[in-house]
Design goal:
17 helices, repeat, mainly alpha, Protein farnesyltransferase/geranylgeranyltransferase type-1 subunit alpha, 333 residues, Prenyl_trans_a, protein farnesyltransferase activity, CAAX-protein geranylgeranyltransferase activity
């Protein structure tokens, strides 16, 4: 880390620890890179000094207010340092510190490092210690919406943890629907919707509602992989998780209508391939049956027109179905 970054985080008026009277009793402990390091990292003087004192404090096991302040400086310089975060937690416990102040500190750090796993983990531990999740939905909403990154994996993971651990499901569908309305291709929002619905339970009524919801979205944007994946996921939840796509003929009929109207979204075509494969296998059709030929034709279209990059996969799908049907009907593979 260069000096300019150190100046930004610690300030131009930062006083070296070696010049602070209250630190005279601590002998800094330099990093041991061995006698002949292959690649020597060019740490700035500030970075080197802070971590030399950090190593010394850890080595002597000191857990004090000055140790806590030192971790703050160290984490400003390297917010991904797991060892410093762990030691900070140990110091907080020892001091019986006000953990609400720690949450405020973490909100600031997350605002600057929203994709840093260590800070989110530390936040989780502090919330567990407080047994108070009251700020977590707002915090993650800020990270996902106000910071302009609606697909931040760490924020979503933390949000799901808070919802699951403290039963905060009540208003989550409203939040998720807002994100989907803003960006229907937001796969993270669709995944969150599935997470909530799965908790509530995939009853027949819920499945019908979700299928209607998703098909309405697909009618708006037909080439939306997120919506198609969600549609198939919901359909598979029927019959206690053993349903196939043909369990919902009304959905299949709508998709076939879209196809007949000229839509050739690769996700729509892939859906029909799965539907016709299921039908052919269920009926134990011959490899030359009309259903089987539908699959071969659609696979050929995918390989040659709509999904060329995965042409070998679609060629495999067609060949695999032919082999399955041949075996089922007693023919040669």
């Amino acid at each position: 880390m260069g000096d300019s970054s150190d100046e930004e985080y610690l300030g131009a008026d930062w006083l070296p620890y070696s010049e602070r009277p209250e630190w005279k009793d601590v002998e800094p402990l330099a990093q041991d890179d061995g006698d002949h390091p292959v690649v020597s990292i060019a740490y700035s003087q500030k970075f080197r000094e802070v971590f030399d004192y950090m190593r010394a404090i850890i080595a002597r096991g000191e857990k004090s207010q000055r140790a806590l302040d030192l971790t703050t400086d160290a984490l400003r310089l390297n917010p991904a340092n797991y060892t410093v975060w762990q030691y900070r937690r140990d110091v907080l416990r020892e001091l019986k510190a006000d953990l609400n102040d720690e949450l405020e500190y973490l909100s600031e750090v997350i605002g600057q490092n929203s994709k840093n796993y260590q800070v989110w983990h530390h936040r989780r531990v502090i919330v567990e210690m407080l047994n108070d999740p009251s700020n977590e939905l707002e915090l993650t909403e800020n990270a996902l919406v106000n910071d302009g990154d609606a697909k931040n994996y760490h924020a979503w993971q933390h949000r799901q943890w808070a919802i699951r651990s403290f039963n905060l499901y009540d208003d989550e569908l409203t939040f998720v629907d807002r994100l989907i309305c803003e960006d229907q291709r937001n796969n993270s929002a669709w995944n969150q919707r599935f997470f909530v619905i799965k908790h509530l339970g995939f009853t027949p009524e819920v499945i019908r509602r979700e299928l209607d919801y998703t098909m309405n979205r697909i009618r708006i944007i037909k080439n939306n992989e997120s919506a198609w994946n969600y549609l198939v996921g919901v359909m598979r939840q029927g019959d206690s998780g053993s349903a196939n796509l043909n369990s919902y003929p009304e959905v299949v009929a709508v998709v076939e209508e879209l196809y007949q109207a000229g839509n050739r979204s690769p996700y729509l075509v892939a859906f029909l391939i799965d539907v016709y494969q299921e039908q052919a296998l269920h009926l134990k059709a011959s490899p030359d049956d009309q259903l089987a030929r539908k699959v071969y034709g659609l696979c050929e279209d995918m390989a040659g027109k709509h999904d060329v990059i995965r042409r070998k996969y679609w060629q495999y799908v067609a060949t695999h179905l032919k082999n399955q049907l041949s075996k089922a009907t007693g023919g040669e593979q």
